[in-house]
Design brief:
The protein is an alpha/beta fold. It has two domains: about 110 residues, Rossmann fold, CATH 3.40.50; about 110 residues, Rossmann fold. Helices cover about 35% and strands about 20% of the residues. It has eight helices and twelve strands. Strand 11, helix 7 and strand 12 form a beta-alpha-beta unit. The protein is globular and about 50 Å long.
Length: about 230
């Protein structure tokens, strides 16, 4: 493996790249998705738990409108962003929707009220599973994702691609279909969960490797193992 294309949005992409470079992994940053805040007014009700699925959810949400007894963040970066706004939060052992689900099931009983702050068309796994388990879920879409208009030139320089969400893979897949100059063969796709890997496989992309979760540490370990077996 020569170079990794980091597709996640900023500011997380730069922090992610710094960590990989510290571990001697070459990478290039070119986000596949841009973030746009959506105007939203949250119902003025108190909930048992607020769940933030990304840093963007924290930055885009009208936090002064939300009253929650407790807050969960999907990972350390999101927790830091909440702390900057004087909101204490907890994170799961695994930085993923699956990790959050396990924590919520341990912390709350069915029937508890949960506000999930997320982006339009993004992770629907968590609110869907919570509803199925009997929780009262208020899904708050506070931003939308917009796919970048053209395939980044770094794609041709990289033989591994970091895809941290289903939205990122879908954007990558659409760009591959519309770009005649880009050969997607022989690219290794690195994803943070079995759920995302299963989604990728539906489209026939079988060069997919699973990291333990979406953290830089997990991806670095996975990429280092990949290099060792190259």
């Amino acid at each position: 493996m020569n170079r990794v294309w980091i597709t996640r949005t900023e500011p997380g992409a730069s922090r992610f790249a710094r960590y990989l470079r510290m571990h001697s992994i070459s990478c290039s940053i070119s986000p596949l998705i841009e973030i746009q805040q959506t105007p939203v007014q949250l119902p003025k009700v108190s909930v048992d738990l607020a769940v933030y699925l990304s840093q963007h959810a924290v930055r885009c949400a009208p936090l002064d409108q939300l009253c929650a007894k407790r807050s969960f963040a999907i990972g350390e970066a999101t927790r830091r962003t909440l702390a900057e706004r004087a909101i204490a939060s907890e994170i799961p052992r695994l930085a993923s929707s699956e990790g959050l689900l396990a924590n919520i099931q341990s912390a709350l009983q069915p029937g508890a009220s949960i506000a999930v702050l997320c982006g339009e068309g993004g992770r629907d796994f968590l609110p869907r599973r919570l509803r199925n388990l009997g929780f009262t879920v208020m899904e708050c879409c506070v931003y939308r994702r917009r796919v970048t208009r053209c395939l980044p030139h770094v794609a041709k320089l990289c033989d591994a691609i970091e895809l941290s969400s289903i939205s990122a893979f879908d954007a990558y897949h659409r760009l591959c279909e519309t770009s005649q100059s880009f050969n997607a063969e022989r690219k290794t796709l690195v994803v943070p969960s079995h759920r995302i890997a299963s989604h990728v496989l539906k489209f026939g992309d079988d060069h997919v490797i699973e990291a333990k979760d979406a953290t830089p540490r997990s991806f670095a370990r996975t990429l280092t193992r990949l290099n060792a077996h190259a």
